[in-house]
Amino acid sequence: MQNMRPLLCLALFVISGACVAPAGPWDAFNLSPASKTVYPTSIYQTTGTVSHAHALVDNVGSATVSGNGSWFTLDFGKEIGGLVSFNLDSVSATTSLALSFTESPMFIRSYASDDSSYPAANTTFDTVFHIPAPLSPGYWVQPAFSLRGGFRYLSIVLTDPNGAPVTISNVSAAISFAPHIENLRAYAGYFYAKDPTFHDHDFLTKGGSFAFQTNTVPLNTGRMVPFESAGHWANNATLGVAGPIIVDGAKRDRHVQPKVSL
Ligand SMILES: *[C@@H]1O[C@H](CO)[C@@H](O)[C@H](O)[C@H]1NC(C)=O
Ligand SMILES: *[C@@H]1O[C@H](CO)[C@@H](O)[C@H](O)[C@H]1NC(C)=O
Ligand SMILES: *[C@@H]1O[C@H](CO)[C@@H](O)[C@H](O)[C@H]1NC(C)=O
Ligand SMILES: *[C@@H]1O[C@H](CO)[C@@H](O)[C@H](O)[C@H]1NC(C)=O
User: Fold this and answer.
1) Does the Cβ of 119 fall within 6 Å of ligand 3?
2) pLDDT, tens digit, 9 for 90 and up, residues 158-172
3) Per-residue pLDDT tens over the stretch 79-107
4) What domains can be seen in the chain, in order of their start residue?
5) How far apart are CA 216 and CA 213, in angstroms?
6) Cβ–Cβ < 8 Å for 75, 101
7) Signal sequence span per UniProt (predicted)?
8) Smallest Cα–Cα separation from 84: which of 133, 134, 37?
């Protein structure tokens, strides 16, 4: 039976084009998320009055933020891309929110994301995504044009002249990249080896890696050109005639990639 396995695998490969390896040390090199709905894995920071922020980790409860200018930063644990959604459980008529997105912790700021529209020297070209007052209680989904294709940290910033509280729960992101791949962790066609005399491991994939997935995007999620003006970004341009399509970069260079160099 043991000897049948490679043959069975080959037969499956011919039929489905994919053959998944059994669990092993090579899984440590597989950075792809297990689900297309991802939740924060930790709280990076809180500023001002933020209570129960940790309840947002893995979606176990709700957090309350109050006081004008209070904010907090959620860490998704790895690079992700897609539309954010959450539930506003209680709001006040005067409150507005702002969202800022970054790949690196170096650029976490309440007033700006890292640049995706245009790489300006001041690093504050994009600024934030505003959700204006009055907020509606209930489920909120980020509009499609404002998609961020690459981020790890999401900051949520409260503005309220009266400092009124907002209670928020169910913060997640819907992975938008590699829409044609159902199980992002099922890499096909890779090679793994352990160096017998050194603490080194080699892991090579044939077009199945996480970087490749994050750069393979739905057809209508390209960066708008000419770029949006300062203070905005838009990722709703149509990239070609058929998709998904490979682009230069998940976050900023969402243009068709004429060569593959990942
Ligand atoms: C940052 O630089 C860009 C490009 O030069 C400019 O359009 C924008 O207004 C600047 N932002 C701020 C906040 O100064
Ligand atoms: C992209 O979204 C912006 C902002 O909503 C909108 O003005 C524009 O028409 C959209 N473009 C396309 C190609 O859908
Ligand atoms: C609230 O905070 C914002 C910046 O986050 C500031 O521009 C505004 O003046 C503040 N409003 C009040 C009433 O303090
Ligand atoms: C929580 O968010 C998910 C998307 O991640 C959504 O499908 C679900 O309806 C939300 N839950 C509630 C109670 O609105």
Assistant:
1) no
2) 999 999 999 999 999
3) 999 999 999 999 999 999 999 999 999 99
4) 37-175 (2.60.120.260)
5) 5
6) no
7) 1-23
8) 37
